[in-house]
């Protein structure tokens, strides 16, 4: 993890809880903290935080986390940009959290890629980096080995997903249970924006949002109405009514829509076969994916992949 002068304690806490001291025993990864200049860094609230390693550590890391930055107009050292580019060239995972996404963009790592940042800075980001495909809706984006996320709890979710890639689902689930968090991103930044808020104080609404998150990351699991309703402790009739009121779609329509979005992302960012993508997105058979895809977008998955690339 990279730290810097003026870092906010909350930016530190997410990666530290997931990869460092998390209360579930020894960290499952070799986690080190580095800075442009080794030594203690002064945090936003005046506390010193140790950073015993320099940028040399980036030369051999499997994953590098940039948790925020001291300001969108704060200069980013060329030595740091170059180190990140070298790490990218050797296929290391590189993660930008909140304003850390600006660091990745300044280094040129996001050109032509999908990325996410905090919604308060998304307009500035879009103007400054027009070659980046900014996803303003979701709180988390992965494009190959480049990971970006919005602020707050999205950073923890992103780190949990990275931990799953590095050490497997068992390690990630163990940490997630300790943190009372999910190993997936919370969808839709729009729910955080003034005037488009979801009232999560209502227990039913909170359970429904948790269910939507679960459905997003388990597309291959059977999602019958009865089983889904049981998960949120509702009758099927109440569940279907609340689901449509919350999403504007039936369960089936919403699920296919999310599956197709997932398929689009994989077609853009991976070299997986159409058969493999059909499996990953829950369609099962490639024929089913092709039928739904053509009905929704007027072209086959292969044609879409050629177009976006």
Question: Can you give a write-up of this model?
Answer:
- The protein is α/β, with parallel strands linked by helices and 309 residues long.
- Helix content is 46%, strand content 8%.
- The chain has 13 helices and 8 strands.
- The protein has helices spanning 9-19, 78-89, 100-106, 122-128, 153-167, 169-179, 203-217, 225-231, 236-247, 251-269, 274-280, 286-297, 301-308; strands at 41-42, 48-49, 63-67, 93-97, 114-115, 133-134, 140-143, 146-149.
- The strands form 3 sheets. Strands 3-4-8-7 form a 4-stranded mixed beta sheet, sandwiched between helices. Strands 1-2 form a two-stranded antiparallel sheet.
- Strand 5 (114-115), helix 4 and strand 6 (133-134) form a beta-alpha-beta unit.
- The longest helix has 19 residues, at 251-269.
- It is globular.
- Residues 182-203 have low confidence and may be disordered.
